[in-house]
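ok here's the first one, seq then struct tokens
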Amino acid sequence: CCSYYMYDCCNLSRTEVQTVVKLILASGSTRRQEILRTLGIEYSLLKCNVDETVEMMPPEDTVQTLAARKCTAAKALLPCGNERFVVISADTVVSYENEIFGKPKDREDAVHMLSALSGSIHHVHTGIAVSDGCKMTVESETTKVFFRELSIDEINRYVDSGEPMDKAGAYGIQETGALFVRKISGDYFNVVGLPVCRLGIILSRDFGIDLLALSEGNKRHS
């Protein structure tokens, strides 16, 4: 149900082009891709590089700014025409005591993040941007996460596994990092990287797209 973005307008009649809606996920995150696959949502994948440098601002504003930047960049790569493309992009960070934790730069950075999160409460923020070319909606979701106390040995072993290195906050709640999480308050999928409840609301409210209906239809035809 996932493919890299390819488009050939010659294979579609004018009527088909006018009625087809294609969801485009502008993200290289395997976690976000897996979430949509689990929901049974068909989408195409479009990865583009953007400058992720932002000025100092609250984490909610940071993730919204970056999600919007990714969405705008992806939309600019799509062809003009009658077919309706709806682009979805997201950005996730962890915040702890006014410090933003993105993906660790190196091993030392990962150890620093996990040591800070050990035995404490932090927040995971995901910005989500959706655009059909005519308008864009940008919102964010926040989840509170409670970590148990981690020993230095546990931190070192986890970092040495390599799992933390491509994840905001240096852990993955959907993988071995789940061993560190005592509880959460909020959307679990937001911690993974894509708040699907909020996404569904945005698509239905602002773009007239029913993810439940899409999922049901795709499952019937699979």
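and now the second one, same deal
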Amino acid sequence: LLAPDILLYKGELIELMSGQLFHMEESLQAIKTNDFRKIVHRMELERIRYAINCYLRVRLQKLESYSKYFIHEDQNRTDDKKRLAPSELAYAENYNELMESHFKQLVFRHIPPQHDDNEKRMIRPNLMSNVFIKINSPCGTLISSSNDEEISLTEVDNMHMLPYQIISELLLNGDVD
């Protein structure tokens, strides 16, 4: 959620959790209304539902903020490395088309064609923004690009704050969280 880039879509996990929520709600109906267990389980259901909605909301915000960039990046990835779900890609393409047509109607028709560079208008996330990481498995040492400092990522459960771009592959491999 906190990475500036969009990560792999966890659709299977979302579907599994949504299915579990449905079954838990069905089983809660068998418990009496005033039973304390029902109140606690209801709170747990709401907490899980909130976590799912938060995950989806953050992905949607990222898609809307950087739709053109994510579409471009996903097109350059192989099928097994794509980060957007098909529905997210369709949404991002539709959103991008709507924004482009809106800006063409308002602004771009007044700008000479030689100044309308589609590549320059692509908004990119700041991949050099700092993120907190927790080491899951020893990763060796990294060289920080900002000050050429060596950073040891060998002790499991240690936490560091590093630029996202440096640790992005480690995050995708599951070596860090």
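notes on #2: Helices lie at 11-28, 36-65, 67-75, 86-106, 164-173. The first helix runs from residue 11 to 28.
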